[in-house]
């Protein structure tokens, strides 16, 4: 790519997972954004990112005495922050809030600015990510969106393209419209003009997961949004105001995060008039962050070298498991990993529902390592975590639950397990980047054909598909049957009798994923198909 010709992009996201030492993220969205800015920095492309400095980040979650998780909120360290001196003001609940911008000076973040209120007494706004009710959320989204655009002006950055990563950033679009109206444009003309500058990525394949806000709430929270009439707000986001609907109407192109998710997204929003065409750009992960350097080095030396490199990573995982839980997993036996946010559609406990698994687990022929966090207010998710913790009591030497899933643990698991299990209720997994991390480390995916996996799976070669993509009544039973059949009929026999073939599959998994599911490929694709203007019409599928 010839860098000087590339558009200058302003990337907006609520969270960035750059390092476990700098916890201003909750999960997958943050990991994606963190990997996006790291790859942009590695590639030297002109991308400026905007986020929020969360002073107590996201929860650290430990199991309480009954197995139900308990949350704690440590203070986020500030060593990674450099003051820029830039300031911008937003109005929240009738009060002027001055924002400052910190530049992140480490973790490979490139040009990332984090906003924070200048005055201590305004910092309740940016204390905890995804906490509180809709009024706090709207206020935080005004900081990110409205504050973000104003801060770019204060920093002297003039973007060609604004990329909203998920609907949280949509108020930035309203601010861009407002700017044009202040300069004399009519509302429709201002909308048409900003639409040429905005691109939008949506992640949530479940309607209920897409945030909406009552119009009066928008007005109460921010005088900055008071520049618009109800009719104007409704014309963009509907009533209640849908952040995704507004994102689709304010952008020139929108995308889902895997090919299948693109289809799901088009189906979900096909009734939205005036929406941008929706295409897809499949996610990727930052290989220097997620791929084990020993495995990367062994890759070209062949299957035996890969197996040996993997064994070292597996030993490190076993050591960590022992330190955390006291359980000594067997190095020569299969370890299946499953680490995800504890949402019920991910069905973490699926594999435990078939009695055929019991003897395998009792004998330790199969060892399961679970990890995951529930949203602090998600009682159902917390029950799910408690159920996994209970399973580890039933099979004390072969089922482990590791509390407080975060990046470091994610790294250990996606290189130290032998198999990476993924069994969401299709099509609810938009992408699922942990499977890409596993694939790059030769950890073989055993997954439902959801998210990215239909693009990466060659059954019996790069990993295994579980089921045939069936969606409908009895899906859980269908998928469970398929899971146990593939595990007993294919995965275990290869593991137990044909380690050479296993090594070949590891190599095929790395070959398949190393470039195609890297965030370097992803960022290049955003520049070529989304940020650049020319080929957009052809690239978009409508
Ligand atoms: C990679 C990662 C995720 C996202 O993975 P999914 O497959 O989307 O669940 C979430 N949390 C952490 C800590 C990760 O490392």
Model description:
This protein is α/β, with parallel strands linked by helices and 542 residues long. The chain has two domains: 9-284 and 522-531, Glycogen Phosphorylase B (Rossmann fold), CATH 3.40.50; 287-516, 3-Layer(aba) Sandwich (Rossmann fold). The chain has 20 helices and 21 strands. A nine-stranded mixed sheet has the order 7-8-9-4-1-10-11-14-15, with helices on both faces. Helix 10 (293-299) packs antiparallel against helix 11 (303-325) and helix 11 crosses helix 18. It starts with 8 loop residues before the first strand and ends with a helix. The protein binds pyridoxal-5'-phosphate. The site of pyridoxal-5'-phosphate has 13 residues, from helix 1, helix 14 and helix 15.
Kindly list the characteristics that best describe this protein.
542 residues, six-stranded parallel sheet, 20 helices, globular, binds pyridoxal-5'-phosphate
State which percent range the strand residues make up.
Answer: 15-25%
Instruction: Give unreliable regions as ranges.
Output: 535-542
CATH class of the largest domain: Alpha Beta
Major sheet size, sense and barrel closure: 9 strands, mixed
CATH topology-level fold name of the largest domain: Rossmann fold
Strand order of the largest sheet: 7-8-9-4-1-10-11-14-15
The count of β-strands is 21
């Amino acid at each position: 790519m010839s860098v000087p010709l590339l558009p200058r992009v302003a990337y907006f996201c609520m969270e960035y997972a750059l390092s476990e030492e700098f916890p201003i993220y909750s999960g997958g969205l943050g990991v994606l954004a963190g990997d996006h800015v790291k790859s942009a920095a590695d590639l030297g492309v002109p991308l400026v990112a905007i986020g929020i400095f969360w002073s107590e980040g996201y929860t650290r979650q430990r199991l309480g005495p009954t197995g139900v998780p308990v949350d704690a909120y440590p203070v986020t360290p500030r060593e990674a922050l450099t003051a820029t001196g830039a300031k911008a003001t937003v109005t929240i609940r009738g009060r002027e809030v001055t924002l400052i911008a910190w530049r992140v000076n480490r973790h490979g973040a490139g040009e990332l600015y984090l906003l924070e209120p200048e005055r201590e007494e305004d910092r309740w706004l940016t204390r905890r990510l995804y906490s509180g009710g809709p009024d706090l959320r709207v206020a935080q989204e005004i900081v990110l969106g409205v504050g973000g655009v104003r801060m770019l002006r204060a920093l002297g950055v003039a973007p060609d393209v604004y990329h909203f990563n998920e609907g949280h950033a949509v108020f930035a679009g309203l601010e861009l419209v407002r700017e044009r109206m202040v300069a004399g444009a009519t509302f429709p003309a201002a909308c048409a003009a900003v639409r040429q500058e905005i691109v939008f990525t949506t992640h949530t394949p479940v309607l209920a997961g897409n945030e909406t806000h009552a119009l009066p709430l928008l007005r109460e929270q921010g005088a900055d949004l008071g520049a618009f009439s109800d009719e104007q707000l409704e014309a963009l986001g509907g009533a209640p105001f849908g952040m995704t609907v507004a994102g689709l109407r304010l952008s020139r192109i929108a995308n889902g995060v895997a090919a299948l998710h693109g289809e799901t997204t088009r189906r979900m929003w096909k009734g939205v008039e005036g929406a941008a065409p929706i295409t897809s750009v499949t996610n990727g992960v930052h290989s220097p962050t997620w791929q084990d350097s020993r495995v990367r080095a062994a890759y070209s030396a062949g299957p035996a070298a890969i197996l040996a490199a993997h064994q070292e990573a597996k030993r490190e995982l076993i050591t960590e498991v022992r330190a955390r839980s006291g359980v000594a997993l067997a190095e020569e036996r299969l370890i299946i990993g499953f680490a995800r946010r504890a949402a019920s559609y991910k069905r973490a406990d699926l594999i435990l529902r078939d009695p055929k698994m019991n003897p395998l687990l009792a004998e330790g022929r199969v060892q399961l390592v679970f990890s995951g966090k529930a949203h602090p207010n998600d009682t159902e998710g917390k029950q799910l975590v408690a159920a996994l913790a209970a399973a580890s009591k039933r099979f004390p030497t072969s089922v482990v639950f590791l509390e407080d899933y975060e990046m470091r643990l994610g790294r250990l698991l996606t290189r130290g397990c032998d198999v990476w299990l993924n069994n969401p209720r299709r099509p609810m997994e938009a992408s699922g980047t942990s499977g890409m991390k596993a694939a790059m480390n030769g950890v073989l995916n055993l997954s439902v054909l959801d998210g990215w996996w239909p693009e990466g799976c060659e059954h019996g070669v790069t990993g295994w598909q579980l089921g045939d993509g069936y969606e409908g009544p009895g899906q859980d039973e269908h998928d469970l049957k398929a899971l146990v059949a593939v595990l007993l009929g294919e995965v275990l026999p290869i593991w137990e009798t044909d380690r050479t073939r296993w090594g070949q599959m590891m190599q095929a998994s790395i070959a398949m994923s190393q470039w195609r599911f890297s965030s370097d490929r992803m960022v290049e694709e955003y520049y070529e198909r989304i940020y650049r203007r020319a080929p957009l019409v052809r690239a978009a599928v409508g």
